[in-house]
Amino acid sequence: IAELNSIKPVFIELGLQTIHEETAKFIRRGYTLDVYDSAVQNLKKTGAHIITHMILGLPGEDSEMMKQTAKHIASVGSDGVKLQLLHILRGTDLGNLYNSGSVCTLSKAEYISCLCDCVRCFPDGTVLHRITGDAPKDLLIAPKWSADKKRVLQEIREAFANCDIILQ
């Protein structure tokens, strides 16, 4: 990786999603937080740019837990972040749990508020590679509001402006 990085920039994406082990087990992440931390540390030595994936709205997590994940991502030195809203899709275990009422999703206002809180945790220079995502509309069970991506992005821009977060 170091050799390739000397020729052209290397970006490596790591799917952390959350620092909370109970949630990680629930979503079947497949490795513990120390594995992520070690990967970041070792990859940083190669000069590669590290981009960490984080999901907002995971079952059982409140806004404070999400901020803790964002602060951890910042503390290990991730160069960038891809923030993603939890989507519930047809044909998944999570979809079945949602349909049974066992899990719920964030409202648009809750998502944008959590997003603002998390973004404030990252140091200047952290690249936000993604601030939301979309799911295939034919598979999306919830949240339905996320299907209108243009409106969601506009409301995020407005919220960021109101809390002095600058997008470039």
Secondary-structure element string: HEHHEHEEHHEEH
Task: Please state the average pLDDT score.
Answer: 95
The chain-level structural class is alpha/beta
Could you name the ranges where pLDDT drops below 50 across 5 or more consecutive residues? none
Topology readout:
Layout: H1 2-7, E1 11-17, H2 21-26, H3 33-45, E2 49-56, H4 63-76, E3 80-85, E4 88-89, H5 93-99, H6 108-119, E5 127-130, E6 140-142, H7 149-162
Parallel strand pairs: 1-2, 2-3, 3-5
Antiparallel strand pairs: 4-6
Helix pairs in contact: 4-6, 6-7
What does this structure look like?
The protein is an alpha/beta fold and 168 residues long. The chain is 43% helix and 18% strand. The chain has seven helices and six strands, in the order H-E-H-H-E-H-E-E-H-H-E-E-H. The protein has helices at residues 2-7, 21-26, 33-45, 63-76, 93-99, 108-119, 149-162, and strands at 11-17, 49-56, 80-85, 88-89, 127-130, 140-142. The strands form two sheets. A four-stranded parallel β-sheet has the order 1-2-3-5. Strands 4-6 form a two-stranded antiparallel sheet. The longest helix has 14 residues, at 63-76. The radius of gyration is 16 Å and the shape is globular. It starts with a helix and ends in a 6-residue tail after the last helix. The model has no long low-confidence stretch (mean pLDDT 95).
